[in-house]
Amino acid sequence: MSLLIKQKTEIRTDWKIDEIEAIFDLPFADLIHQAQTIHRENFDANSVQISTLLSIKTGACPEDCAYCSQSALNTTDLEREKLLPLNEVVSAAQEAKDAGSTRFCMGAAWRNPTDKSLDHVVDMIVAVKEMGMETCVTLGMLKKEQAIRLKEAGLDYYNHNLDTSPEFYGNIITTRTYNDRLETLDNVRSAGINVCAGGILGMGETRRDRARLLQELATLPQHPESVPINDLVQVKGTPLDGIDRLDSFEFIRTVAVARIIMPKSYVRLSAGRMEMNDEMQSLCFLAGANSIFYGERLLTTDNPSESHDNLLFNKLGIKSEKPLEKA
User: Fold this and answer.
1) 54-58, 239-243, 272-276, 294-298: the lowest-pLDDT one
2) Does the active-site annotation cover 284?
3) pTM of the model as a whole
4) Quick check: is 68 catalytic?
C-alpha cells in the first residue's frame, strides 16, 4: 500500500497485469483511500467536468457490436435517422451550454466516416467551437488524413473506446479488430487531438478482462485524457439483453483502479447511470470519477435528468468544472 502512495505522482505506461490485478484485490477501504489520495493530488476532489452527448446520425451501423442498439444486425426498435442538419446541432449545443455543459460530444453510427460526411461534421465542430464549448466526436474508425482534417477544424477530443480486453473482444465484436481500434487511437494522437477512450463493463467479462482493458489504456504511449467507464445498458433485441448485471462494487473498484493507474486522466462515469442509485454514483465519485454526461439522453439510451444530477451534486457539495485547458 505504501509503495503505491509513494508512486502516486508517477505517470507510468509500463503497468503489468499482475500489478493491476493486485490493486483490484485490495480491501475496498484501502482501494478507495488510495484512489482518493491520488485523485486529490491531481484534481479538485469536489469538481466534476460536465459533457453532453448528441447522436448526430442514428442507426443502420454495419458493425455487429453485441451491446449496441444502433447495429443494423440487431433487432431493436430504433428508428434510423439521417445526419442531423447543422442548425439542429447548434441548437442542441446551445441548450447544453445553457444547462452547464462545457463540452459538446457528437456521435454518428458509422463504421468509418466518408470524406463527404466528414465535411458536414467539420462544419458542426467549427460552429460549436464558435460558441465557446469544447468539442468531441465519435465517428468510428479514422484514417490519418481524416484525423488531421478534424484537428484543423479545431476538434478537442476524439472518442474511440476499446470496449473490453483483447482476449474477450471477439465475444462482443467481429466486424473490426482490436488493432483497428488501436490504429484509430494512434491516428488521433498523431494528429494532436486529445484521446477519449474507455470501455464497457458488465458484458460477461471477468475481472481479469477488466484489468486487461485498463492495462491496454494505461500502457498506451500517452494515457487518454478522458477515460469513459460505461456500465452496460441492456437493450431489447441485442445479444447482451438479459445478461447478469455486474456487481456494483466491482464497477466501483474498476473506477478506482482506473484512477490509480491513470492519475491525470479524467475518468468519466458514462452510460448506465440510470440503473445506479445515488449511493453508488457517490462512491464512484469518491473512487475518482470526475466527469459525467449531462442530459436525459445518451445517443439512444436514457440518462438521469439534469435536475436529478444537480440535486445529487448539491448533496455531495460537488460543483461543475470550468472548461478544460488544452492538453
Assistant:
1) 294-298
2) no
3) 0.88
4) yes
Active site residue 268: yes
pLDDT tens column, 97-129: 888 888 999 988 787 888 888 999 999 999 999
Q: Which of 103, 105, 181, 259 is catalytic?
A: 105
How far is Cα 182 from Cα 187, in angstroms, rounded to an integer? 9
Give the pLDDT of residue 323: 52
- Catalytic residue selected from 149, 176, 189, 196: 196
Q: Is 65 a catalytic residue?
A: yes
Which residue is it, cell 479514422? 142
Query: Among 210, 259, 268, 273, which one carries the catalytic annotation?
Result: 268
Contact between 291 and 50 (Cβ < 8 Å): yes
> Considering 136, 176, 181, 284, which one is annotated as catalytic?
136
Q: Phi/psi class of residue 16: alpha, beta or left (left: φ > 0; alpha: ψ in -120 to 50)?
A: beta
Give the C-alpha separation, 253 to 61, whole Å: 32
Residue type at 170 in one-letter notation: G
Catalytic residue among 68, 176, 212, 253: 68
Measured distance CA(201)–CA(180) in Å, rounded: 21
Query: Which residues lie closer than 8 Å to 266 by C-beta, 6 or more apart?
Result: 49, 225, 226, 227, 290, 291, 324
45, 179, 225 from 183: Cα distances, Å? 34, 6, 17
